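Worked example 3 (structure in, sequence out).
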């Protein structure tokens, strides 16, 4: 015998037309009523993982699985990992899982993404109204990333063939390029070390195809701990203040960039380590640029989600068409990314690669 802390019975759920999609909130039994309880009156609220598991089994029988699972509990990594594994082993349908960001520092959030214990992290107190939108986005990118999109059966074989050719092309070209560029790697490493203390390479978590998070490599072009100075330079952001749309950060004549770094950026030589990302399968030669997590999180609405349907790339349509343009808005940049994701072909990728050398030298220092 068990007790579900739910706001409706199964019978009412089957008969009632939902104004809001049904979500499942997993929280403490003694949690005070939050504003989102009243907002999601047709959703489920369970006290802990055990009650959630029993409820999900019952919902599955009636084909009424929730659109999203929202966890609002103090983080216990073993319990969370076990619950996520249970979901994957028990149900054939994908139900995205998000965690309340309140009280979690950046290190913990990176751990959640790295281990794939959750699909996203949200600030529940301020963004609870956008949870249905979040659910649609996460389901959409999961469907595309796992090849489960609803496409005619006769098209499956050409798609697989295209993917195989694309990957074979990437691996072959990356191996050749790494061998040819090895002397350049050595010279750049020496120059970086001679100018400033710190590591030769810069690596950070980026979001690529399907919002998959991976470690992204570049030659270091900035002073050490440059990421910690973003807030100090917010007023100089070339893309303006953050609003309701996509958020990007770039500063003209960025004071954090070293002299060697400026040369590497203007010649795009800082991108050479990404050849190893291509070998690992994190990126392709052509695609949409992988984004820092603080930028990617502003693009999780249906309006912008399509840019993550394309692979992460070293170069792409944006680079050859608008790179170095100081007047470009975030909306324009994402529109270009979406256009590429909708219309990408192997022949089109080859054209982008051929045009890339002509835009490697920038005139604008952006």
């Amino acid at each position: 015998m068990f007790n579900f802390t739910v706001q409706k019975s199964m019978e009412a759920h089957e008969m009632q037309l939902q104004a809001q999609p049904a979500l499942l909130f997993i929280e403490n039994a003694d949690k005070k009523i939050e504003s989102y309880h009243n907002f999601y009156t047709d959703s489920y609220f369970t006290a802990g993982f055990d009650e959630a598991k029993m409820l999900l089994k019952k919902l599955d029988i009636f084909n009424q699985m929730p659109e999203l699972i929202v966890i609002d509990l103090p983080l216990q990594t073993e319990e969370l990992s076990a619950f996520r594994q249970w979901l994957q082993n028990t149900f054939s349908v994908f139900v995205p899982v998000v965690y309340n960001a309140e009280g979690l520092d950046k290190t913990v959030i990176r751990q959640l993404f790295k281990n794939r214990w959750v699909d996203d992290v949200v600030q529940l107190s301020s963004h609870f109204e956008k949870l249905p939108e979040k659910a649609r986005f996460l389901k959409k990118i999961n469907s595309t990333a796992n090849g489960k999109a609803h496409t005619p059966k006769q098209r499956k074989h050409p798609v697989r063939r295209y993917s195989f050719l694309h990957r074979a092309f990437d691996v072959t070209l990356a191996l050749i390029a790494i061998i040819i560029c090895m002397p350049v790697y050595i010279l750049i490493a020496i120059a970086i070390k001679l100018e400033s203390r710190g590591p030769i390479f810069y690596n950070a978590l980026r979001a690529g195809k399907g919002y998959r998070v991976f470690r992204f490599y570049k030659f270091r072009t900035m002073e050490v701990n440059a990421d910690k100075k973003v807030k100090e330079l917010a007023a100089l952001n070339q893309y303006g203040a953050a609003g309701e749309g996509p958020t990007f950060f770039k500063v003209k004549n960025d004071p954090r960039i070293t002299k060697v770094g400026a040369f590497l950026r203007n010649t795009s030589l800082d991108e050479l380590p990404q050849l190893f990302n291509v070998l690992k399968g994190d990126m392709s030669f052509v695609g949409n640029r992988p984004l820092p997590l603080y930028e990617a999180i502003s693009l999780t609405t249906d309006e912008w989600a399509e840019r993550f349907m394309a692979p992460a790339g070293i170069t792409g349509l944006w680079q050859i068409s608008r790179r170095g343009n100081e007047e470009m808005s975030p909306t324009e940049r994402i529109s270009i990314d979406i256009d590429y994701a909708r219309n990408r072909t192997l022949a089109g990728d080859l054209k982008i690669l051929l045009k890339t050398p002509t835009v490697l030298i920038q005139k604008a220092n952006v």
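Notes: Residues 154-359 form one domain. The chain has two domains: 10-145, 154-359.
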